[in-house]
Specification:
The complex is a heterodimer of chains A (about 375) and B (about 625).
Chain A (H helix, E strand, L loop, with lengths): L6 E5 L4 H12 L3 E6 L7 H11 L9 E5 L11 H10 L2 E4 L11 H10 L1 H10 L4 E5 L11 E2 L12 H20 L3 E6 L1 E3 L13 H22 L2 H5 L3 E2 L5 E9 L4 E2 L1 E3 H13 L5 E5 L5 E2 H12 L1 E8 L10 H10 L11 E2 L2 H6 L10 H13 L5
Parallel strand pairs in A: 1-2, 1-4, 2-3, 4-5, 5-7, 6-16, 7-13, 8-12, 10-15
Antiparallel strand pairs in A: 9-10, 11-14
Chain B lengths: L7 H9 L18 H6 L6 H12 L7 H8 L6 H10 L4 H13 L12 H10 L4 E2 L2 H4 L17 E3 L4 H14 L3 E4 L14 E4 L6 E4 L4 E4 L5 H10 L2 E2 L9 H8 L6 H4 L6 E8 L4 E3 L20 E9 L1 E2 L5 E7 L2 H13 L5 E6 H8 L3 H14 L4 E7 L1 H9 L7 H9 L1 H4 L3 H9 L13 H9 L3 H4 L5 H12 L6 H7 L12 E9 L2 H17 L3 E10 L4 E9 L5 H25 L3 E2 L11 H6 L1
The chains are: A alpha/beta (about 375), B alpha+beta (about 625).
The structure holds flavin-adenine dinucleotide, NADP nicotinamide-adenine-dinucleotide phosphate (NAP) and iron/sulfur cluster.
Chain lengths: ~375, ~625
């Protein structure tokens, strides 16, 4: 890929995965054209430069072109001159942009961004005579009830939210359109991504971070009440400070069944994608997933240790009749509501294509050390607020 | 009580900043009112008047007279007005009172006021008593201004305070004979310049009689009775009246706007609350609304009216209350949904008061200081997405119906928690997180079991926590006030309206008021038009309130522009904008045939509500 005639057109570079990928591509000398959007009055160029700087990547002159785009427009919102310029230079496409919100209230926007916009981007790839179209999807295109998930197109699934649904829909469209137009393509399906396992760094803090941040917010409510107001309410909720300074915070989490959470760090994701970009197999799907998903109990332990709290208990099966959550439990329950389907996951992801393409690159385990590094970084960055 | 010492220049700025909302004329905090004001009744003897007097003296607009010295001396520096004014505007008037005292001492006064030689003044005094009429500039100047950016200063020749309808009739006859123009005044809070005039100002402040006729569910009141005073008396007897701004004279409010109140949802507006009223005509003729031969004051015309009658008493309806009343706030991200909800409640006749309130309104009312109001607004609208809050007041059956409608809501208990804990709201990360995860159903976190308890735990609400940014010497007094339930009781607050004048705390506000169908589309169009005009002229603006009337078929709608009334540049910008606003209202009024502008209601406030809304 570092061939001097090759240029990757990239979308979603201002997002979590995209920004780390962009930085890695810059660091190894690839030429990039970034298509994205400004943020309010902040131009895209400024956003891209800031992200590259924060990730320690310094592009050479003319290494990174930045174009403000609108994928809902058939010409991607580019003027004739910009469009022709892209067509002339682009050799590969890496489509990372996506509406990653789960909410049904955003259905129309999700369909527009994740599905309808594909047409203009693939058309740009066709006109550029792109050698490859790489599409970043998600491992969760399989419904929650599928236990065995092959690196193959999804035929039918019951999706947990509009995000999963539109990603699956987009996969089908990418495969169909690229095949019809004769563009070789790959589909990259990461599971849930967290920060850099070596440095803890991340540019956005969702998914795993959300749970830890939620617990941390609950902990802080009670610590403050105990320290500043005497802790009467905390005691009423069964919450108090242990002699060793640990907050006793009883939280009973009811999950429908035992499962696990498939997590990979961003450094593994980046390394695996770079490997696939270097040796892609046409029309192939890759699962960028962990071989050792973590259990909820393990995650609960990590959280307790990191936050200096005690009392999280995971229960499987329906909550007992008359179960009355204390306010902290009710709050936590609300916090994790959108993420519930991912907390008792039984999906197993096959990795045959990935293992071949990324030989020697294995997903690292989520140990407590890695967890702590990542969460400390996130807390230091005030969870991206 | 403590006072802050300020320079003469600072005192002048503060004096000119007086909003003239007359809150120092009612005992809304239980401090009692300025004693000299209660004794002499002229505006000049109240803190508001002394502020205006100092500004006029310091700017050399009037000379120091013996009356000015008497007014300055009348202040005992008791400090009551600090509590009152700070509560509303954040200002400490006693600093101005000190400056006024220093100023009059430093300037010698002539022995006798020139006004004493005026034969017409003598005639006026013969009617009302020598104490109750004056033409001294120290008095008249305090009736010469209005914070309205459209109003120019007009110093009247005389100020007179009659005590009875007979005296009013005699005064009108005298003025007619001498060709003296007159203007009646309640407490001058119309904030549209309507109570200014060059001739005589007839200040109704001595006519404060309230007579209850409980058999007939009415109270007969004089034109000097304020909304706060009447409501207090009514509540003491177990009733409620439909009145508006606390410091406004009830009769003046009726004459000006027919009474715009959240309570109008149930009790109507204009003549709906007036069983009878007595008037004196320009010609000195006395009549009552209920006379067969009386002029038809029930009619409404869409044209500017002039003042033809002085109302000398009104018989106001009393409404029953129950002991299970409370309020709820239902938050909304968008105006359309808020309108639909408010309409739904009004059509089903749920509650006795409904209003859609903008974030600026709510944050101003609940915040003891302006800095807090800014943070609270930011938190409400930006962080929590609560752009609009629909307040519904009702008994337990009404509130159960609201709950059954299934919307997430803030009940009375949670409201108190949020209000007393508002300093912790801005930093409440848990609330931000809840907002993030509640996109599916905005504000659904309010339905979390035990949310109130949780909010109490997290926000640590208490009067002390709420008041920690308030001037230290005032804190304990306010803490006692907030320790009681009234200041956070949505029903009490809407009945007594003691916090609503905080809307003008950052700078004075200009209300744009129209009656129109309660339709989201039309309201949305007007909101966008008013917002665009304000933005074009760099004017701060926000939706004030929308209240359904007549079963939700129509509503009263207030949109506010905020203008520093002491800044000529802002006034100039506003005047251009006001012309454009007027054109927009006229355009849509002509287009729809259903819009009524408050401008035309002045002096027609006792018309039938139906005549106003539908004729
Ligand atoms: C902070 C604030 C909030 C407000 N909120 C509301 C609100 O929610 N609802 C509402 O309706 N208004 C509201 N107002 C406006 C104001 O309270 C009313 O317009 C009311 O009329 C003012 O009463 P006043 O005693 O101050 O009257 P003034 O300002 O003294 O007089 C108003 C007009 O009535 C005439 N008038 C007064 N007395 C008589 C009489 N006896 N006979 C004939 N004409 C008379 C005057 O000549 C003048 O034209 C608000 C004002 C402020 C400052
Ligand atoms: N994060 C994970 O754990 C994870 C797991 C599985 C799969 N994925 C997939 O990985 C990809 C990147 O995810 P992410 O976590 O990095 O998401 P992210 O942080 O939410 O970033 C999304 C990116 O898409 C861009 N985007 C969104 N809507 C757009 C629109 N309408 N027009 C143009 N650009 C738009 C965003 O631009 P702005 O910055 O301007 O908003 C941003 O660059 C997605 O395809 C996602 O499905 C992520
Ligand atoms: S300090 Fe003076 S002006 Fe203020 S209330 Fe007391 S006596 Fe009146």
């Amino acid at each position: 890929m570092t061939d001097s005639n090759e240029t990757i057109v990239m979308t979603g570079a201002t997002g979590f995965l995209g920004s780390h990928l962009m930085a890695a591509l810059v660091q190894r000398g690839d030429r990039l054209i970034i298509l994205g959007r400004p943020q309010g009055t902040r131009p895209l160029r400024e956003r891209v430069d800031a992200l590259l700087a924060s990730l320690g990547a310094t592009p050479k002159k003319h290494q990174v072109d930045v174009l403000e785009a609108d994928f809902s427009d058939p010409s991607c919102g580019l003027n004739w001159h910009q469009y022709a310029g892209v067509c002339l230079k682009a050799t590969h496409f890496l489509h990372c942009a996506s509406d990653t919100r789960f909410s049904e209230t955003n259905r129309l926007a999700s369909i527009q961004t994740n599905v309808r916009s594909l047409a203009s981007i693939i058309e740009l790839a066709r006109r550029s005579r792109a050698a490859y179209f790489h599409y970043v999807s998600t491992a969760y295109v399989f419904g929650a009830e599928t236990s065995s998930c092959p690196e193959a197109p999804v035929i039918a699934a019951r999706h947990a939210n509009v995000y999963e649904e539109t990603k699956a829909w987009a996969e089908r469209d990418v495969a169909e359109e690229c095949s019809r137009l004769g563009i070789p393509y790959t589909i990259l399906r990461p599971s849930i991504v967290y920060g850099d396992s070596r440095t803890g760094q991340a540019t956005r803090f969702t998914a795993l971070y959300h749970h830890v941040r939620s617990l941390s917010a609950i902990r802080d409510i009670y610590l403050k009440e105990i320290r500043e107001l005497g802790g009467e309410k905390a005691r009423r909720h069964g919450i108090y400070l242990d002699a060793d300074g640990t907050l006793h915070l009883p939280l009973r989490i009811h999950l429908p069944r035992r499962g696990s959470v498939n997590l990979i760090p961003i450094d593994y994701f980046v390394a695996a994608v770079l490997a696939v970009l270097d040796r892609p197999d046409s029309d192939t799907i890759y699962h960028l997933t962990s071989n050792r998903p973590v259990s909820m109990e393990e995650l609960a332990c990590y959280c307790e240790r990191f936050l200096n709290i005690r009392g999280i208990k995971v229960h499987y099966g329906p909550a007992p009749e008359g179960f009355a959550p204390n306010p902290a439990e009710a709050l936590f329950d609300k916090f994790v509501e959108p993420y519930r389907p991912y907390l008792s996951d039984i999906r197993n992801f096959e990795r045959r294509h990935t293992d071949v393409a990324t030989e020697g690159i294995d997903p690292p385990e989520l140990t407590y050390d890695v967890f702590e590094r990542c969460m400390a970084f996130a807390a230091g960055a005030n969870w991206g607020r | 009580m403590d006072c802050l010492e300020v320079s003469a220049e600072q005192a002048l700025q503060m004096a000119k900043g007086c909003r003239q909302y007359a809150m120092c004329k009612i005992d809304f905090l239980g401090t009692g009112i300025c004693e000299s004001g209660a004794d002499r009744r002229f505006v000049a003897y109240y803190p508001q008047g002394r502020m205006l007097l100092y500004a006029a003296l310091a700017e050399g607009k009037i000379p120091v007279t013996a009356r000015a010295k008497e007014i300055a001396d009348g202040c005992t520096l008791c400090g009551k007005c600090d509590y009152q004014c700070y509560f509303v505007t954040g200002m400490r008037p006693t600093a101005v009172m000190r400056a006024l005292k220093r100023f009059v001492v430093g300037h010698p006064q002539p022995d006798r006021a020139a006004s004493d030689a005026d034969p017409l003044l003598a005639e006026i005094r013969a009617i009302v008593g020598s104490r109750w009429a004056d033409s001294d500039p120290a008095v008249t100047v305090t009736y010469s201004t209005d914070p309205c950016p459209l109003a120019d200063q007009r110093i009247p020749r005389y100020v007179v305070l009659p005590e009875s309808a007979e005296q009013v009739a005699a005064l009108l006859a005298l003025f007619r004979e001498h060709g003296i123009a007159w203007t009646v005044r309640g407490n001058g809070t119309n904030i549209l310049g309507f109570a200014l005039g060059d001739g005589a100002i007839i200040d109704m402040n001595r006519m404060k009689r309230i007579e209850f006729d409980e058999k007939n569910w009415t109270a007969r009141i004089g034109p000097g009775v304020t909304a706060f005073e009447l409501q207090s008396e009514a509540v003491r007897r177990g009733y409620r009246v439909c009145v508006a701004e606390g410091a406004a004279s009830v009769i003046s409010s009726i004459m000006t706007s027919g009474i715009l109140s959240l309570l109008s949802t149930a009790y109507g507006t204009c003549a709906s609350n007036v069983v009878d009223a007595e008037f004196v005509s320009r010609e000195g003729r006395r009549f009552s609304l209920n006379d067969k031969e009386a002029p038809n004051l029930f009619a409404f015309q869409m044209t500017d009216q002039e003042s033809r009658f002085v109302c000398t008493s009104a018989t106001i309806k009393l409404h029953p209350r129950s002991d299970d009343e409370a309020g709820v706030l239902v938050p909304f991200q968008g105006l359309d949904d808020a309108v639909a909800f408010a309409r739904d409640c009004a059509v089903r006749r749920i509650g006795f008061g409904i209003g859609i309130l903008g974030a600026e309104y709510v944050s101003s009312f609940i915040s003891p200081t302006q800095a807090q109001a800014v943070t609270v607004k930011e938190t409400l609208s930006t962080k929590l997405g609560m752009e609009y809050l629909v307040v519904v007041l009702g008994d337990r059956h009404a509130l159960r119906s609201v709950a059954d409608m299934g919307r997430p809501l803030i009940d009375q208990k949670l409201f108190r928690t949020l209000n007393l804990g508002l300093n912790a709201l801005g930093a409440a990360e848990w609330l931000e997180l809840l907002t993030e995860v509640s996109q599916e159903e905005p504000f659904s976190y309010l339905k979390i079991q035990g949310f109130s308890e949780l909010a109490e735990t997290a926000l640590g609400p208490s009067p002390e926590a709420l008041l920690k940014e308030v001037d230290p010497d005032l804190r304990s007094f306010y803490a006692e006030l907030y320790a009681g339930s009234e200041m956070t009781d949505l029903v009490w607050l809407n009945m007594f309206r003691v916090t609503s004048s905080r809307i003008g705390r950052e700078k004075h506000f200009f209300p744009i008021l129209v009656y129109l169908p309660l339709e989201a589309e039309l309201l949305g169009v007007l909101v966008r038009e008013f917002a665009a005009i304000a933005a074009k002229h760099g004017i701060k603006h926000d939706l004030g309130f929308i209240t359904p009337v007549d079963d939700g078929k129509r509503c009263m709608f207030e949109y506010d522009y905020f203008v520093d009334h002491t800044d000529p540049a802002q006034i100039a910008d506003f005047r251009v904008a006001a012309g454009e606003v007027g054109a927009v209202i006229e355009k849509y009024a002509a287009k729809t045939g259903t819009i009524r502008w408050l401008r035309y209601l002045l002096h027609q406030g006792v018309c039938r509500m139906e005549n106003l809304l539908y004729c």
